[in-house]
Amino acid sequence: MINYNDKRFRAIENSPNGEVSGDMIFHYKQEGNQLVCQYFGGKILEGWLQGTVDENGVIEMNYTQVNT
Fold first, then answer.
1. How many domains does the chain have?
2. Are 11 and 21 in contact, with CB atoms under 8 Å apart?
3. H/E/C letters for each residue in 27-58?
4. Cα-only R_g, the chain
5. Which domain holds residue 53?
């Protein structure tokens, strides 16, 4: 299983009506198979991803965010 703890990622592509920009940093934390991620920027005041990663590296996540 990949360990995402304290990793940071940036989006490289988004849908035409998406709110995520390439300037946003997604900061991941992991305990066991549980993942959480915090992000913000642009119209997004604060966003969170929460989910799990299995032994094959498959991630299932949900998100919530607060926009301006």
1. 1
2. yes
3. EEEEECCEEEEEEEECCEEEEEEEEEECCCCC
4. 12
5. 23-67
- To which residue do tokens 């198979």 refer? 33
The span from the CA of 56 to the CA of 20, in Å, is 27
Is 40 among the domain residues?
A: yes
Q: d(Cα 58, Cα 43) in Å, to the nearest integer?
A: 29
Distances (CA, A) of 6 to 15, 23, 30: 26, 18, 8
Alpha-carbon distance 51 to 1, whole Å?
A: 14
pLDDT per residue as tens, the chain (68 positions) = 789 999 999 988 888 888 888 889 999 999 999 999 999 988 899 999 999 999 998 999 999 999 98
